[in-house]
Design goal:
The complex is a heterodimer of chains A (110) and B (744). By secondary structure, chain A is of the alpha+beta class. Chain A is built from four helices and five strands, in the order E-H-E-E-H-H-E-H-E. Chain A has a domain of 74 residues: 2-Layer Sandwich (Alpha-Beta Plaits). Chain A has a three-stranded antiparallel β-sheet. A two-stranded antiparallel ribbon of chain A has the order 2-3. In chain A, strand 2 and strand 3 form a beta hairpin. Chain A starts with a strand and ends with a strand. The mean pLDDT of chain A is 96. By secondary structure, chain B is of the alpha/beta class. Chain B has three domains: 218 residues, Rossmann fold (3-Layer(aba) Sandwich), CATH 3.40.50; 225 residues, Dimethylsulfoxide Reductase, domain 2 (3-Layer(aba) Sandwich); 112 residues, Beta Barrel (Barwin-like endoglucanases). In chain B, strands 5-4-17-16-15-6-7 form a seven-stranded mixed β-sheet. A six-stranded mixed β-barrel of chain B has the order 22-26-23-25-24-27. In chain B, strands 11-10-9-13 form a four-stranded parallel β-sheet, with helices on one face. Classes of the chains: A alpha+beta (110), B alpha/beta (744). Chains A and B meet through helix 1 and strand 3 of A and strand 3, helix 6 and helix 25 of B.
Chain lengths: 110, 744
């Protein structure tokens, strides 16, 4: 069986930070500690004068919400993502999904 | 999070303090041993379908914050000294009762204002207390020109006799899967970046949901945003000129005959007069006014008009345009003449769910709740009603700019006291914030009801009453849909809900008060829906209006579901959508839309513009904060620690400022501190900065007041409102300023 990971369809990430606060709540992390961090990119692009993107980056603290997984629940970030642009699943399946969701990244944990 | 036993899960609806927003999310509250330990989105709630915003996910940090107000307080030092002592509820009520009765006996009930902030569940309880006391002066104190939704409501009401919202399938529990529903082919997003907001009873990410299902976006926004950078067309408009753009688009759609002729013939009134008016706004003229290239205006107008269904979703900048009501009227005409009213994926008529009133939006609802006699009596005395017929005829609110002038001058009658409820007037919405501070200090008696101390409570309060979050109270919500209830699952200190406080106080001030407790009131108001509070709680806290109900789309004008007489048509005098508004005519307002240049602008005030060459836009929403709230919540504050100003790289070069530098935004009214964020998000001739800033970690007593005079941006926003109807034209997005160095 393939390893689990996260697919982040960042084209739709609106930078709302629900993933980050959901993670902090779930793991009872204090401010300053978080399993996923969102970065904003504002830049000149090829076909438009300005592009704005956000990218959630799973940090060393991400455990893919193993406790929730054992209860049959999605990771806290995936569950609460307001743009519903994050998926959890086996890497093999996520790679297939990725082919039809351009501008996405795959996260494979340690 | 430990998944151990003894946890109870309560689904509830959220509205009001806590997350703070206008939405109706379903959230599940996890409670153990009487303590809230976690919040999770409710998958069964059709509104959010399991999703949550960062503010509601941080609820445990909010509810149990060490700075929460947990008992009633009485001021013991001088005002502003920050010295308070805890007292019992009974003592607090006794003091309020004695003072307020004495003022009513000596000066009349009208000499007390009842102030609220943004439109959450407080609107119901505060109008209830105000009317039971007998005052006509229920007011969004500080909100210049009532420039938040009310002008749009006025423009819609005067045109269609009803209100309307973009259809994202929110009126059906099946949402996008409802076979009757259709996704808009085009969404014209006017003056908003929807993701950080849940304004006006609308979940911002619904627009994102529609984009995933194929909706194309036309974005009208002076800034580059997440939404604008994903739009088919981005119209980078000069702030405050939206009225000209709407008229220019009407001009193109009418002259190119792109409108829905059948709908116009059958259901509208005054088309020829509108056609004549829009000839004054040819596209070249509109392009010069708005700074948008002609070809973009034409392309946007054609794409919108040629797509069916198409929807318009709009934001608060419309209200803040000069003559906001008439700008809203013109935009309402766009969705009217294109036949997008009350069709799937268009702009559907929005009424309070099941016909339940929580928060009265119109004079009709006030009459239903409080009777014609009282409403007529209060209409005569309300601040602003002699000057502005709309203040008398449309909504039950006093005019805020005139209210603060009257508090200051005592004319035409004195104002002696203020009951300020969950409204940080001084740290939040008050344009001319310093003037509000000076004027409000003249009052004999000020009650502040809130959850945390803030600049307003510190500077002004004689009595402070601790309010509850949505997790700590029973309340209800019917703002469009769903019909929802909040129910109390935890308790914090001695906090009480706004409804509880105001019903208890109302009973002391009015021996004939209709309700003795909150449940009695809620159940009475819910009776039109044929449901009780407990039944709604038992079914997961939310319900959708059934098909065929007048609060559920579609095509109700054809079915006779809108009018009291049961005839097909709209609830206007002519029964049609009035492109020439009879209501405006009766209120002495121009019945047709027109454009007026902002008071401060390169065109209107060239000398001022030479001195202050930047157009300052304030008030874009943050995912982290609701207006002036949440600055003390660690998980939220760390993600946006300081109030920043977005400055274009070229502008930064001109003013010689660097990224991260603390500077002043300055004009003739004063200066406010901001941290520079150099960004391509803004136009070189504009800057944008966040509003509602004060720092809870700073000293609360005078002169610091939590740093409000360092950071409150509305100190340099002028008043009064820039509109002749009294509605609209708060200058929050059109004030001129410059950047200046801070010299120690």
């Amino acid at each position: 069986m393939s390893k689990n990971g996260l697919l982040i369809h960042y084209d739709y990430c609106t930078g709302c930070q629900s993933c980050a606060v959901a993670c902090q709540q779930e793991h009872d992390f204090p401010a300053g500690k978080c399993g996923i961090e969102v970065t904003e990119y504002v830049y000149e692009a090829i076909r438009k004068p300005v592009a704005i993107d956000f990218l959630p980056f799973p940090t060393e603290l991400c455990d893919l919400c193993i406790n929730r997984y054992q209860q049959g629940e999605k990771p806290a970030c995936v569950k609460h993502c307001q743009a519903a642009c994050m998926s959890f699943g086996s890497l093999t399946e996520l790679v297939q999904q990725m082919e039809i969701t351009p501008r996405s990244v795959l996260f494979s944990p340690r | 999070m430990d998944y151990d036993k003894g946890i109870e899960v309560f689904p509830t609806t959220i509205w009001s303090a806590g997350a703070g927003c206008h939405g109706a999310c379903g959230q599940k509250l996890y409670v153990k041993d009487g303590k809230l330990i976690k919040v999770e989105g409710d998958e069964n709630a059709s509104w959010n379908q399991g999703r949550s915003c960062p503010r509601v996910l941080a609820l445990t940090q909010y509810v149990y914050h060490p700075d929460r107000l947990t008992t009633p307080l009485k001021r013991i030092g001088n005002r502003g000294e920050g010295k308070f002592e805890p007292i019992s509820w009974d003592e607090a009520y006794n003091i309020c009762e004695t003072k307020l009765k004495k003022i009513r006996d000596e000066f009349g009930a009208e000499s007390v204002v009842f102030a609220q902030g943004t439109g959450r569940d407080v609107g119901g309880p505060i109008s209830f207390l105000c009317y039971n006391y007998g005052s006509p002066n229920w007011v969004q104190l500080g909100l210049s020109g009532q420039s938040c939704y009310t002008p749009r409501l006025g423009g819609m009401k005067a045109t269609m006799g009803d209100f309307s919202v973009m259809d994202a399938g929110q009126f059906s529990a099946e949402r996008f899967d409802d076979p009757e529903y259709e996704v808009p082919k085009v969404i014209l997003v006017w003056g908003q970046n929807p993701p950080p907001t849940c304004s006006d009873g609308f979940f911002g990410h619904w627009v994102v949901d529609c984009m995933k299902r194929g909706s194309k976006i036309i974005s009208i926004d002076p800034r580059n945003t997440w939404m604008s950078t994903r739009a088919e067309h981005h119209l980078q408009i000069r702030p405050g000129t939206d009225g000209a753009l709407a008229l220019g688009m009407l001009n193109i759609i009418i002259n190119e005959k792109l409108y829905d002729k059948n709908f116009v013939d059958k259901w509208t009134y005054g088309f020829e007069k509108l056609k004549e008016r829009v000839q004054e706004y040819p596209v070249d003229k509109v392009s010069k006014i708005t700074w948008i290239p002609e070809k973009l205006i034409i392309a946007a107008a054609r794409l919108y008009a040629n797509s069916s269904p198409a929807a318009i979703h709009w934001g608060v900048p419309i209200d803040m345009c000069p003559e906001g009501t008439t700008v809203a009227q013109a935009i309402t005409q766009l969705w009217s003449i294109t036949g997008n009213i009350d069709i799937p994926g268009g702009n559907v008529i929005a009424r309070p769910s099941h016909g339940v009133t929580t928060y009265p939006y119109s004079t009709e609802e006030l009459v239903e709740l409080y009777g014609q006699e009282l409403v007529d009596k209060l209409n005569r005395l309300r601040i602003g009603c002699d000057t502005y017929p709309m203040v008398k005829g449309f909504r039950g609110w006093a005019q805020p700019d005139m209210a603060i002038d009257q508090i200051d001058s005592g004319k035409p009658y004195p104002i002696k006291a203020a009951w300020i409820q969950t409204a940080n007037v001084l740290g939040g919405q008050a344009a001319r914030a310093k003037f509000h501070y000076e004027a409000l200090k003249k009052l004999d008696f000020v009650v502040v009801v809130d959850l945390f101390h803030n600049p307003t409570s510190m500077a002004l309060a004689d009595i402070v009453l601790p309010a509850a979050t949505f997790a700590e109270k029973d309340s209800f919500r019917s703002w469009w849909v769903p019909l929802g209830v909040m129910h109390k699952v935890i308790e914090v200190g001695e906090c009480k809900s706004d409804w509880e406080i105001n019903i208890e106080m109302a009973n002391r001030l009015n021996p004939n008060c209709k309700y003795k407790n909150v449940k009695e009131l809620i159940n009475d108001r819910l009776s039109v829906a044929g449901m009780t509070f407990d039944e709604l709680v038992a079914q997961g806290s939310q319900a959708m209006p059934p098909k065929g109900h007048s609060s559920r789309p579609y095509r109700r004008h054809e079915k006779g579901l809108l009018r009291h007489d049961g005839k097909p048509g709209f609830t206007t005098e002519t029964g049609r959508v009035e492109l020439y508004s009879k209501a405006f005519e009766s209120w002495g307002v121009d019945p047709l839309p027109f454009y007026r240049e902002p008071a401060q602008s390169p065109v209107n005030s060239p000398e001022l513009y030479a001195k202050y060459p930047l157009i300052m836009i304030t008030g874009a929403r943050s995912h982290m904060f609701f207006h002036s709230e949440h600055r003390m919540i660690p998980w939220l504050r760390e993600k946006n620690p300081e109030p920043y100003v977005e400055v274009h790289p070229e502008t930064a070069k001109t003013f010689g400022v660097y990224d991260g530098e603390w500077i002043h935004l300055e004009n003739d009214m004063g200066k406010v501190k901001r941290k520079v964020r150099i960004s391509l998000r803004v136009h070189p001739q504009m800057i944008h900065t966040l509003h509602g800033w004060w720092k809870p970690e700073m000293k609360g007593s005078e002169p610091d007041l939590f740093g409000v005079w360092d950071y409150q941006i509305n100190q340099i926003v002028p008043g009064p409102q820039d509109s002749n109807s009294g509605f609209g034209g708060g200058q929050y997005k059109t004030t001129l300023c410059k950047l200046s160095k801070i010299r120690e």
